[in-house]
Amino acid sequence: MLYALARPLLFSLDPETAHRLTLQLAGLLGSAFPAVPPCPVRAMGLDFPNPVGLAAGLDKDAAHVDALAALGFGFLEVGTVTPRPQPGNPRPRLFRLPAADALINRLGFNNAGLDGFLENLARARYRGVLGINIGRNFDTPNERAADDYCACLERVYERASYVAVNVSSPNTTGLRALQETQALDALLARLVSLRERLADRHGTRVPLALKVAPDLDAGQIRGIAAAVRRHRFDALIATNTTLARAGVEGLPHASEQGGLSGAPIRSLATGVLAAFASELKGEVPLIGVGGILSGADAAEKRAAGAVLVQLYTGLIYRGPELIRECVSALREKSRTASTASR
Predict the structure, then answer these.
(1) Handedness of CA 176, 191, 230, 166 (dihedral sign)
(2) DSSP 171
(3) Contact present, 58 and 315 (Cβ < 8 Å)
(4) Is a pLDDT exceeding 90 seen at residue 232?
(5) Of 3, 6, 255, 291, whose CB neighbour count within 10 A is largest?
(6) Cα dihedral 56, 206, 276, 223 in deg (nearest 10)
(7) Residues 174, 171: Cα–Cα separation, whole Å
């Protein structure tokens, strides 16, 4: 109810201005809602108090970690961070499509770079499960992309519970080409090799997750699944935003360039998630993201094979109460499954 009252004011503002204001208010919003019920989950060798997390992109610079944690998430994923600061694409670059509960963004990995990112994390008190999403700078060619990812992995390693490798944003030119077999094999091999050296150095093996696009055909899904299995990655996040415009045709801003998120991508993202579940057969934990605007949507992701789920656009339209709703739905689904198996 509180967020429903605030939403008209927020939606009267430019989307990026509203985004910043919401992050600043997040801590206050969290204290106004009932506590999220426990629903413990273990994945990637990590213990999560509940399976509902924040997706990367909302807090790119890890500047609001404590406030976001107060909302009741079971885990947070911050970033995408790149080695060097970059401003991202020119504004306007974030668009609401309220009639479809959707967003289009072409932010372009705007972030403060590793130094600013890590300074922010050093001030955070949060010690729950923290995913750090890493990417390459916009002007780094793909043949040197692994250098950027490795630089990020090395710098964030001590602070991360897991590291998510983002090769699927549609807003950095050429980035999605890193999902192709040869490029992906080379990248994952470099990261896994570095991770093993870092594990020896720090005495802790930080899990690696791969975040993929929803705009994949069956052959690409098979190839990515095989690479994830071959390099023993610890999780796969399905999915990022889509370049498709199904479900928003003719709406204001629908023709804007960028990635579409929210309700219209739910079926597409869930279908890709289910395809990866079929390929990986439980060998690799799956994190479902894309189009979750209700507890039923979260339960649908679980049914498609997700162990964990993440929210972003749904928070913009539903507010923090969506977290509790999704946890409650997944808790009930787990209870029902447990009862049925007896």
Answers:
(1) negative
(2) T
(3) yes
(4) yes
(5) 291
(6) 110
(7) 9
Tokens for 144? 């040197």
Query: Crossing angle, helix 321-340 and helix 295-304, to 10 degrees?
Result: 50
Which structural domains are found in the chain, ordered by start? 2-334 (3.20.20.70)
Instruction: Give the separation between CA 11 and CA 7, rounded to whole angstroms.
Output: 6
| CA–CA separation, 328 and 335 (whole Å) | 10
Q: What is the spatial distance between Cα 170 and Cα 211, in angstroms, rounded to a whole number?
A: 12
pLDDT digits (tens, 9 = 90+) for 235-269: 999 999 999 999 999 999 999 999 999 999 999 99
Q: Does residue 269 sit in helix, strand or coil?
A: helix
Helices in the chain by DSSP H: which ranges?
A: 2-11, 15-31, 65-69, 113-123, 145-156, 181-202, 218-230, 266-280, 295-304, 313-318, 321-340
CB 266 within 8 A of CB 235: no
Residue 323 contacts residue 36 (beta carbons within 8 Å): yes
Tokens linked to 92: 């306007």
Query: What's the pLDDT band for 338 if we cut at 50, 70, 90?
Result: low
Please determine, for residue 84, whether its predicted confidence score (pLDDT) is greater than 90.
Answer: yes
Instruction: Examine the pLDDT at 68 and tell me if it is beyond 70.
Output: yes
Q: Does 85 score more than 70 pLDDT?
A: yes
> What is the C-alpha R_g of the chain?
19
The residues assigned a catalytic role are 169
3-state secondary structure at position 78 = strand
Question: What is the dihedral angle through the alpha carbons of 291, 295, 301, 302, rounded to the nearest 10 degrees?
Answer: 160
Q: What number of CA atoms fall less than 13 Å from residue 140's CA on the CB side?
A: 21
Contacts of 336 (CB under 8 A, 6+ apart): none
294, 330 Cβ separation under 8 angstroms: no
**What is each CA distance from 36 to 48, 74, 110, 338, in whole angstroms?**
13, 9, 31, 21
- Which of 107, 114, 21, 123 shows the shortest CA–CA distance to 63? 123
Residues 50, 43: Cα–Cα separation, whole Å? 11
Average pLDDT value over all residues in the chain: 95
Give residue 115's pLDDT: 98
